[in-house]
Write a structure and sequence with these properties.
This protein is an alpha+beta fold. The protein contains 3 helices and 4 strands, in the order H-E-H-E-E-H-E. Strands 1-4-2-3 form a 4-stranded antiparallel sheet, sandwiched between helices. It is globular. The N and C termini lie far apart (about 60 Å).
């Protein structure tokens, strides 16, 4: 009888420890995630009061869990500007290169000349 009571008590303690340890392991998995971080900002963002596609691209960049980058042309007094993202790349450098390529391809795609070249505005 005493042995059964000890087993039940031990099982309860172990179950409690297991439940208490679970949130810690879940947090340890997320520790490597970059989601929600703005990363290294090189230039101030220039959205103003707009809510266009580049604002959404930047918001998606911040939400991305891996190495990502956001590139944009400098506005230079005009309201039109291009942007390009790269999400979840193998490295920060790879993300920056892809974001620049994506940004520069927008002007070619729509056959529009920009006032400046694309630059990395933020990367992580």
């Amino acid at each position: 009888m005493k042995l059964n009571t000890m087993r039940l008590a031990l099982a309860s303690v172990l179950a409690g420890l297991l439940v208490a340890a679970m949130p810690g392991t879940a947090m340890a998995k997320d520790k490597g995630s970059l989601a929600g971080e703005a990363g290294n900002k090189r230039y101030p963002l220039q959205f103003g009061q707009t809510t266009g596609p580049c604002k959404k691209v930047y918001d998606d960049y911040v939400k991305a869990p891996g190495h990502s980058a956001y590139a944009q042309t400098h506005r230079g007094g005009t309201e039109a500007f291009f942007c390009g993202p790269a999400y979840n790349a193998p490295s920060q450098k790879a993300a920056e290169e892809q974001a620049l390529a994506n940004c520069n391809s927008v002007g070619k795609k729509y056959k529009v000349k920009t006032t400046g070249k694309c630059a990395i505005y933020a990367s992580k």
